[in-house]
């Protein structure tokens, strides 16, 4: 006989009055719940957190005492560093739009939301906040119509894949030169033609973009005071080179940067879930073989999958990102040899894209390699700076592509022999990344001749053992020649 009872009847019974099968079932369910909870606790304890989850850069909170207007009641106790546990547990989001009106959320550098509200948006003293000195104004004899880039020659021997970091010069965060006007026009044209492949900004990057814009405008006004200035209330930016006035209250900050600065920017923000840095905003016009949309919202590890031997550096690179202090920016320079001056060319777009991505070629002479001569070859150097913004804690890359006719290297002491050595004896997968085979062959022949001529002329000792130059990333005597070409006294 089957006995049925209404749910209300069951709930009113005591444990002794319940059917035995129901008591057993309840005990089994309770045991399963306890077992699952135990397993979860064990897994949580046995699974280590991501390696850099509680690794943060040095705090900059101590500088707030030097901002008496904003922080007149800032006590010694307020200067104390925020613990890694609080920085992680109360991390300001970077994956969605952050609500800065809610107090006591923190950036990686230890600034709270209430402190952010008093700083970013008001053009504070970023040199003080970051610990990086303001630039010196360009010399009075500097003329933008004669200005040229510094002659980067970042060749190293022995040549291995590493970050190759170099000392940062605060005067050269942004370099303007004689092609400023055509470069700005070309960048605007690229943006109109390929907007999604040139520019993007994620919802969590608002703070970093505003901070970057303010820092860059301050830099331009100090470094090039004859060409840029801000209104007294910091709401209008005057660019005398372009004859433009930008309303900073209505123009998105990263667009302000794009409209005035002829360099590329990539903004990496810390993800509070794993402690790694992800690309959350960028404006990049100088990519060849790739474009910025391919790397949107990706961590460093995925961004560098195409770079030879990048996996060998990944752990140290992630650790470096996690710890980078705001007062220790660095620079680096990568290089390649090209047979045309490619500003932006990637599969599916550009001069040599073809009808589809498979037909894309890096070389302008891919279908006629026999016509290539040394006169067409260009040394391309991508000069980069990496720095952490002091308030948002974002890590910002900025870079510019500098093209130099390869023939200019002919008379630069030691440079032809050094580059020849790298191209002919460097690790194959690294060198193949630097140039197409037909380009490399033409370059090698010319470099060999120039190196021999420098020995004959006594410029380079015959017994010189090829190695990285002491003046790297430049060469002996570069500064005098560079200033002379520009008429700088």
TrEMBL record:
Question: What protein name applies here?
Answer: Uncharacterized protein
List where the protein spans the membrane: 20-39
Q: Is Membrane found in the keyword set?
A: yes
Please give the InterPro entries that the UniProt record associates with this protein.
Answer: HODM_asu-like
Q: Which UniProt keywords apply?
A: Membrane, Transmembrane, Transmembrane helix
